[in-house]
Design a protein that fits this description.
Number of helices: 0
Radius of gyration: 15 Å
Number of strands: 14
Helix content: under 10%
Structural class: mainly beta
Distance between the termini: 39 Å
Strand content: 15-25%
């Protein structure tokens, strides 16, 4: 909670000397509009940018492997996330209720947690790389704009209601490994 509720904070650049963004670090920074995360950061903690409702863009550095639960929950103006290819795990509710998020490339992600993108009603294109093995329960629930789902050939598990309410998705098929 180092910078929690810093209402005047508008921009953050995390330098390469930082390796971890701890839990609730920028919780509730309502004026924060952009975040650039340096290339030495490996972990974004739980609720790190929770309810930063003015946040519009995030650039995630080249060493981040884990995005914690609720990390960007409720960032309702977030439209773009430049997700690095090193991200392996997206925690529960990490991007839930990011209602303006339009697309995300899960290129090397292996695990998408429960409710990870719940309520991202503007999310249209979902590209999963060949590493994705687990999609948690309710992961994309109420993502009513998703009309394209490019899936992983090594997918092993899809949780309950993972795509519930994805009314624009015309069809979906899973590999026999699921």
């Amino acid at each position: 909670g180092a910078f929690a509720y810093c209402y005047s904070l508008t921009s953050v650049t995390i330098p390469d000397s930082v390796t971890t963004i701890r839990d609730s670090a920028f919780f509730g920074c309502h004026s924060l509009t952009s975040v650039t995360i340096g290339d030495s950061v490996t972990t974004i903690g739980k609720r790190a940018f929770y309810n930063c409702d003015s946040l519009t863009s995030v650039t995630i550095g080249d060493s981040v492997t884990t995005i914690g639960g609720d990390a960007f929950y409720g960032c309702k103006n977030l439209t773009s996330v430049a997700l690095s290819t090193t991200v392996k795990s997206i925690g529960s509710k990490a991007f839930a209720m990011c209602t303006k998020l339009k697309g995300i490339n899960l290129q090397n992600v292996q695990t998408v947690g429960e409710h990870a993108f719940f309520g991202c009603k503007s999310l249209k294109t979902l590209k999963c790389g060949s590493a994705l093995k687990v999609i948690g329960a309710y992961a994309f629930e109420n993502c009513s704009a998703i009309d394209t789902f490019v899936q992983s050939p090594v997918l092993l598990y899809v949780g309950n209601y993972a795509f519930a309410g994805c009314s624009a998705l015309p069809s979906i098929s899973f590999p026999n490994s699921v």
